[in-house]
């Protein structure tokens, strides 16, 4: 089984797959008479196709044991999908480049507390992957409407996803 080792989640590294939702390095402005700082326009939300609309959801997700066996990835051709943790704990964002309509080698990004992700429309990704042993809630922003918004791919040879060795 091929091994994928998680790498730090950074805007630059994640750019080909979507957005990192975080205040670090984000443009912001003071609003409400100086009582609030708005970190603005952090992700590109897309919802296309017949009857498309943006959904705001909460996912209460169970954690996965590590190392993770990754046998399937998916993508949403009609919309983006954002995951923002509601508890400040790490999670894994696993994505693949598209290679002529099939997912290439996965890349796993370890999101730190304070980071969320937005998968760009049609980006191959693993389903929501909390780690660390506790159920975790996520605010999820994605697309509703008509038509099929899910394409799945089953790897003939699953990958093993693990965290980097402690320094
Ligand atoms: N099924 C669903 O709403 N969630 C998945 O798309 C996912 O990426 O977790
Ligand atoms: Ni998804």
TrEMBL record:
Required cofactor names: Ni(2+)
E.C. number: 4.3.2.3
Pathway: Nitrogen metabolism; (S)-allantoin degradation
Taxonomy, superkingdom: Bacteria
SUPFAM superfamilies: RmlC-like cupins
Catalysed reaction equations from the record: (S)-ureidoglycolate = urea + glyoxylate
Alphabetic keyword roster: Lyase, Purine metabolism
Enzyme class name: lyase
Entry's Gene Ontology molecular function annotations: lyase activity
Subunit: Homodimer.
Database matches in HAMAP family: Ureidogly_lyase
Function field: Catalyzes the catabolism of the allantoin degradation intermediate (S)-ureidoglycolate, generating urea and glyoxylate. Involved in the utilization of allantoin as nitrogen source.
Family classification: Belongs to the ureidoglycolate lyase family.
Identification of the protein by name: Ureidoglycolate lyase
